């Protein structure tokens, strides 16, 4: 196989940048690597801003450290000394208007037994957990995929699904348990469900054993913000970065590709041996239409949820010792989650007298709240925070609203199989797909997807 001498990466989020860096590491200094990004900045959903005197994430806030990809990339670009972990405070859950501890002994809200969820659900739900029947066969057949909600409602009932599973999935995906693929949203549980005959047993098999030792950190971020990772990866890749330019068309050209870039009035063309599409589903499908229409249709099926993030700086706030809380949709509130930044991240405190908190608004299929203007969203957020934390919560002295249209993929059952089929359609051609649209949300997943795309170009190059 002949390695590509030139690669065009369409999309400058962390997946596209991870692909650029892996290509640089494997192809060497002579390779011509170009990253074209429609926006006027790199990073995609990684965006650090300045708010009330502190750096604050206006997009993704943190990454899993138990997956190695993000930490490994941080090390690769020399930012290990900036790695920070959250304080040892737990998250809460709003149930019947009360803020309670997040139940233990669960996976994405699904319990291994009734013990840890007694404060959240009623006696009937507890009895159903304890009496879950044995199916006599695996919960999930080979190659089968169902929604998380379908499995949990069938085995443990509505109350567990609505009060526990739904808010946790909503916090990650802004989606609903009844819509999201088990195989993509909770892949470890999908694997366990192919061998276990009870859901509680499948969950129990995945939980770590009890330990008296301090738990290892689950999440991490970087002092100075996640945009520092974006900048460092872009610099290390030594790619030719082109911002504010849409890629309008992609076509085969000799043994490689030709892309039409820029405005419709004054486009220019760029040729490359290979291409990485690190884009959301619909723009990726549009570019794939002239390459393989069937692949484009498979990719374009994915839908997205929009999101609003409201940041508040509140003086003299008496916040609980928590990292934040989640809100089930059954509570009838507009906000679905809140993070207490200055409680969760000790490096952000720094003697700042203001409490910085951020609330998330927007669930898939419910866009009414996001139609309100910024001032209304700030008022709603403060009012609902006060409802949970106490009516004497002071008014904010600073507020910021960031809207993310089409922010989070909504993986329907069968998503992974559809992406396998799309990639099979493209096999043998010097083109690869990368990012959350294809391989799951979260910074480590996107990094892994970008790096895998870079490796795939070498494997599929004739």
TrEMBL record:
InterPro entries: Amino_oxidase (IPR002937), FAD/NAD-bd_sf (IPR036188), Protoporphyrinogen_oxidase (IPR004572), Zeta_carotene_desat/Oxidored (IPR050464). Its EC number is 1.3.3.15. It is found in: Cytoplasm. This is Coproporphyrinogen III oxidase. It catalyses: coproporphyrinogen III + 3 O2 = coproporphyrin III + 3 H2O2. Pathway: Porphyrin-containing compound metabolism; protoheme biosynthesis. It comes from the Bacteria. GO terms for molecular function: oxygen-dependent protoporphyrinogen oxidase activity. PANTHER family: PROTOPORPHYRINOGEN OXIDASE (PTHR42923:SF3). Pfam families: Amino_oxidase. It comes from Stackebrandtia endophytica. Its cofactor is FAD. Belongs to the protoporphyrinogen/coproporphyrinogen oxidase family. Coproporphyrinogen III oxidase subfamily. It is an enzyme of class 1 (oxidoreductase). Keywords: Cytoplasm, FAD, Flavoprotein, Heme biosynthesis, Oxidoreductase. Residues 14-457 form the Amine oxidase domain. The keyword Methyltransferase does not apply. GO terms for biological process: heme biosynthetic process. One of its GO terms (cellular component) is cytoplasm. The keyword Oxidoreductase applies. Signal peptide: none annotated. Involved in coproporphyrin-dependent heme b biosynthesis. Catalyzes the oxidation of coproporphyrinogen III to coproporphyrin III.
